[in-house]
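Page 47, continued from p. 46.
Same chain as before, 109 aa.
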Amino acid sequence: MERIKKYIDAPVSNIKSSFYHIGMTNVPCIFCIGATFPIIDKYIERPYIHKNKHLIIRNEEQNKRVKTKLRRIINAEKMFPNRFEQRITDIKNELIAELNSTKKNEENR
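Result:
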């Protein structure tokens, strides 16, 4: 919790401030925005559900804050590929190659 607090308390000008967000879905939660990475349906194991309900952000202001933080991380990643431990650029490139390969295989059938 101490590590998360350092990120949450970081000044907005610091990219660290974008890695976590305290908010609400159906329950209070901490969003780990820094753990975001590209994904395709094939790799989605299951929906994120709590008490048989999908967790949904209903508050538009909170949606905007989460999207802003995510946009900052993605923009930093574009400027400095693989800057973060998630290696977002490598994952994105691997998924693009996989999608292109799948598309070519379908076209050749």
